[in-house]
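Example record for the data management plan.
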Amino acid sequence: MSLPAFPAAFYVTGTDTGIGKTFSSCILLHALRQRGRRAVGMKPVASGCASTAHGLRNEDATALLAASDPTPAYEDLNPYALPLPLAPELAAAAAGVTLSLAPIDAAFGRLRAQADTVVVEGVGGWLAPLSTHLDQSHLVQALQLPVVMVVGLRLGCLNHARLTAQAIAASGARCIGWIANEVDPQMQCIDDNVALLKARLPMPCWGRLPYAPGADPALLAAALALPMQEF
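Corresponding structural encoding:
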């Protein structure tokens, strides 16, 4: 039985840092797996990595690894593991590393060979640079990825979501959907804000994730309604 058409890979960006890209990406991986797809995650660049017996490891990347099936090599999932918890450009400079697309492209190719869908998680917000000459849009263009935007539901999310959507479009990338993620349990009029976002964002909403720190992402996969058709 053939699988429903769906992007072979997509890039998860966010309206800011700390709005749940990893949380959302892990839930996306489980949602895809529950629909019969081999789905693996990727975190091309990760800063704030801890030294372990197996090398540098990043908490977000290991979460993606745990949510992936089949389980890829860590070095493919996270080609650039940087020690300091700084913006990638600063973390790479401190580590004496020059970020380039070639190692990411090679690792992505190996992941694509073993999965039906690769969920590639970005860093920070869309315009957070990877290096002096490398933006996230360059990575998206090189890997030919559509984009999914995670909107952190908190005060200011309308402005941040619309600016991010405009920036994605201006870069030439294609945003195919967005996910509402409740990051502030005290946010007022949250339902009204979601309704306003749905009315103003030009791409479909893939679902709304509850405020659930520490929750098992597999149990939240049902909150997403993935459009299982070709884009």
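Summary line stored alongside the record: The domain at 9-223 is CATH 3.40.50.300 (Rossmann fold).
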